[in-house]
Amino acid sequence: MVKSKPTEHAPADAPAYTVVARRYRPQQFSELIGQEHVAGALVNALKSGRVAHAYLFTGARGVGKTSAARILAKALNCLKTDKATPTPCDECDSCRAVMTGDDVDVLEIDGASNNKVEEVRDLRQNVGFRPARGRYKIYIIDEVHMLSTSAFNALLKTLEEPPEHVKFILATTEVQKIPITILSRCQRFDFAHVGPGKIFEQLKRIVEREGHQADDDALRLVARRAAGSMRDSQSLLDQLLASSSGPLTAEQVTAVLGTAGDDRVIELAKAILANDPKTALDRIAEWVERGLQIGELIDQVVEYWRALMLVSCGGPDVRELPVSPNQHEAIRTQAKAVSLDTVLAGLEILTATKARMRGTPHVQVLLEMAVVRLCRLPDLRSLSQLVQAVSQPGVQFVASAASNGTPPPARPQLTPNAAQVSEAAKKNGPLVTAGRASENGSTNAPTEVAATPLSEATVQTVWDRFFRYATEKYPILSQHLRYASSYAIFGPNALAVRFPTSYANAKKECEGEASLARFQDALKRVTGQPVSIRFELDRSPNAQPLAGPQSVSVAAPTERKRSLGSLPMFKKAHEVFGAQIWHVDDDFNPAAVHKPAAPKIDDEEEEETATEEV
C-alpha cells in the first residue's frame, strides 16, 4: 500500500478584513455625525433618568439608526457604573459584547426575516425573563415596517406595557408603513440626511487614519455621490481605496462610478444653453461609447441645473452649491445669461426624465429627448406674450431677452398664411368660424343677455334659459332635466321641479349635493340672484316628461358662437392657434361698455344748480 506524502501545512490565515463602514461605526453619542438633535435628546434622557420603554428611529439608509440603537443599549447596560450613563465605557464585557453583537441581553432582530406572528409570540414569552447580567433586556428590531399586520397586533400589548427590565428600540426606513397604533406607543426620532460637507470631513479623517492619500475633489465627489448616507460614502471610499494603487484622484472616482467629469458637464450645459442640440447629442453619444452611465449623467445635470437655480435666486454668494468647486465659476457666468423661469422649466424636464428612466431600457433616448427639449426652451412663449398677441391685432411674437440684456436672435414673424390656418384647423378638428358678413358687409353683432328675475310671469323664460345654460355647461347632468314633468315657484326665489314617479332615478341624480350646487349656480347666472331649487316626485297618473324646454331654439347657441367669432380677439386666436369656441356662458357679453363717468360740472353750472335748490 503506497503511503501518501504528508501535506505541507498552509500558513496561518491572515486576520479577516473588516470594511471601513464597520470599523468606523460611531461608538459614542458625540460621534453621531449629522444627528446632533437625536444624540442631545437621548443624552438628556439618560442624565435625567427619563428613558422611555420604546423608541422608534426613522430615516434614510446609512444615517446612524442602528448605531444609535447600539450606543443606547451600551449606555443602559454599561457595567462600569451603577446606573445608565450617557457615556458608555466601551471597555466592560457588556459594552464589548454589544459592539460585536454577541450580548445575550441585547437582541438584534431583523424584521424582514422574523415578520411572522409566531416569532412575535415567542418574543412575548421571552420578555418575562430577566436579563442575564445587565440592567435591561433590550430588543432592537431593524426594518420593523416589514412585520406583518398580525405580528404588529401581537406586539401591541407588550409594546405598550412591557416589564420594567425591557426596552424596545425599533428602526425603519419607511415609517409610513407602520400602523398608527405602534407609532403612538413609541417615542419617535427622525434621523436627517447627512450633509455633503460633514461627510467630506469624515472621509478626510478616515483617509488619514488609513494611511492613504486622496484629493479633496475626489472626496467631495464621493460625498455628493452618497446622497446623504454616511454608510454609502464609506463603502464607496473603501472600494476606491482598494482599487487605487496611489493617491485617489477625481479622475479615478469618475472612472469607477461611470460619471462625467466636471468639464464634460460644463460642456454639455454650454451646448444646451446655446440652443445647440447637435453638439449636445454628439457629446452624449461620444461619452456613452466610452462607458458613461446615463443614470449618473442625468443626476449630474440635475445637480447642475439646481445650482443654476440657487445662484439665480440667491446670487453668486450662495452658501453651498451641490456641484464641484471647479464648476462654480461657470455656473455663476451661465446663471446671468438665462432666466429663472427657463431654469425651472429645465428642472421640470430633467426630474420627469429621471423618473421615467426607472421603468424603461431606453434611457439614452429619454436623455436625448430631454436635451432637445432643453435646447428648445427659448422658443417657448410666456403666457403674457400669448395674451398680448391674441388680444392686440398686429402684435408679433418676440423672444424674451436674457437677463443680462443681450438682444435675442432674430426670429421669423408668426404671421400665418392660409395654408397654416388650414393646417391648424385640421389639427383642432371642427371649428366654429368667424361670423359671416351679411350682404351689406356688416357682421352679426352679439346680443346682450340681461338677467331675468324669477317671478310668476317669467318662470317659463327662466326655465328655458336655465335649461339652455345647463345643457351647454353640464351636458351630461342636464340630461336628467329632460325627464322633468313640471316646474313651479314655491316661494320667493325658489323653484320646484317635479319628475314622474317612473323617473325617480333622474330626480335622485339631480338632488345630489354636487348636482344641486351646479344647478343653483346656473340659476344665479340666469336670474342674477341666488335661487334655491328642489326636486319632487309628481304622483299624478298623467305626468309625462317635458322632453326639454318649451321654447329653446336649437340654433341659438350655434348662432351666438358664430357672432362671437367675428370679434377681432377671437379671429386672432383662430388665425394664430386654430382655436375654436367651445362654450359660451349665458351671461357673457363682450360688447358691454363701462358706465361713463358723470360729466364734470362747471362752477357756473354748479352755482345755478345750488340757486335752483334754494
Folded structure, characterized:
The chain is α/β, with parallel strands linked by helices and 614 residues long. Helices cover 46% and strands 8% of the residues. It has helices at 20-23, 36-48, 65-77, 93-100, 117-126, 149-160, 180-183, 196-210, 216-225, 230-243, 250-257, 262-273, 277-289, 294-314, 328-336, 340-356, 363-375, 383-391, 418-428, 459-473, 504-510, 513-527, 555-564, 568-577, 603-613, and strands at residues 54-59, 106-110, 137-142, 166-172, 187-191, 486-491, 494-500, 532-538. The radius of gyration is 38 Å and the shape is flat.
Please sum up the structure shown:
The chain has 614 residues and is of the alpha/beta class.
Topology of this structure?
Blueprint lengths: L19 H4 L12 H13 L5 E6 L5 H13 L15 H8 L5 E5 L6 H10 L10 E6 L6 H12 L5 E7 L7 H4 L3 E5 L4 H15 L5 H10 L4 H14 L6 H8 L4 H12 L3 H13 L4 H21 L13 H9 L3 H17 L6 H13 L7 H9 L26 H11 L30 H15 L12 E6 L2 E7 L3 H7 L2 H15 L4 E7 L16 H10 L3 H10 L25 H11 L1
Parallel strand pairs: 1-4, 1-5, 2-3, 3-4, 7-8
Antiparallel strand pairs: 6-7
